[in-house]
Amino acid sequence: MIPRALEPTLRRAADNYPIVTLTGPRQSGKTTLVKAAFPNHSYASLEDPDQREFAISDPRGFLAQYNGPVVLDEAQRTPDLFSYIQTASDRKAKNGQYVLTGSQSFLLMRTVTQSLAGRAAVLHLLPLSWAELQGRSALALEHIGRNSPQRSDEDLANLMHVLFAGFYPRIHDTDIPPQDWLAHYYRTYVERDVRELLNVGDLEAFGRFLGLCAGRNGQLLNLSSLANDCGISQPTARRWISVLEASFLVRLLRPHHRNFNKRLVKRPKLYFLDTGLLTYLLRIRSPDELRTHSSRGAIFESYVVSELIKNALNRGEEPDLHFWRDSAGHEVDLLLEHSGTLVPIEIKSGATLAADFFAGLRYWLGLAGVPDAPAALVYGGDISLRRAGIAVYSWADL
Q: Do the Cβ atoms of 96 and 14 come closer than 8 Å?
């Protein structure tokens, strides 16, 4: 098992709450993680028809069979059980008694909010981060843009292979080609999860919608245009986007409203959270094809956004990320807010630093009236350094 950065956070949550809830996309490693973090807990998977039928027909009897703490996997499959878990946890009055996992965040969180409010810690596990794959700690969020980074030892040639493969654990645990595994993952998601969450009759239309979203990765989300291109209504498009978010496949990055007396863009940007799945949906068939693909820059942006999101979630924090763009087209790819300070971050997939990479950062810092404030550039090169007061990070040092 590849050690997961979330494990210490998960253990701390179990020390402080009677119930811990862990959500995340399918195959992100939730079951492996909770079994490693809580080896002495009993375990039951509610995907198992027999276990699920027992939990539904006799919830008190199902919970009574566990004298000590227990992990309940895919807990959203039995929503009525949560009220009984609440009663049992109140009676036992011990922390860490129940660890619940689920891959359908919308269903699980709705049940947690209704039945377990105030009793449950809620954590999220995304697929592996690059730092986890390298067996090191991620770059501390509070240091981004402030500390002088160190030179990376990574090989630049790996970047396209990393983006192409993505970060789902099974891809890195086995020798299966990434696109073969992702094709199976895609079919499972569309044919099973989408049916359960949306009761979608026309799965072909949803598949087309997902492909169109991939083509808009890194762009402002125009629901009207997306709906028209897919042949669905705008409310349907909005509902389907919500499901993609709840499934941890995409993230909508909202604009920051620090306007400096300028009109700002109000629509969010759409980002996929796994670059491997994104390249699959874009029908990119090799790292070499990715290297020259028109979407390479947007895919690289997704990598940086998702790494920063994983970094925050693994610490048990909600990532405070936005972008900034005015009506004249001036833009900063990311604004990271930490401890009351905004740190602008520019993202460039190019491997060679160019002077114009810093233009957006300089413009924003000038408008903000803080030309010497922390700022960062993440690029596709293999050397991290500091240039003209701006911290420059190799993709491999996040």
A: yes
Confidence band, pLDDT 50/70/90 cuts, at residue 317:
very high
Tokens representing 112 are: 């947690």
Q: What is the DSSP letter of 96?
A: T
**Domains of the chain (ranges, CATH numbers):** 7-124 (3.40.50.300), 130-397 (no CATH)
CB 92 within 8 A of CB 5: no
Q: Beta 390-394 vs 385-387: how paired, if at all?
A: antiparallel
Q: What are the pLDDT digits (tens) for 26-69?
A: 899 999 999 999 999 999 999 999 999 999 999 999 999 998 89
Residue showing tokens 């009055």: 93
- Residues 6 or more apart in contact with residue 204 via CB below 8 angstroms: none
Quote the CA–CA distance of 61 and 379 in Å, as a whole number: 56
CA distance 308 to 191: 30
pTM, two decimals, is: 0.94
Distance between CA 71 and CA 97 in Å, rounded? 9
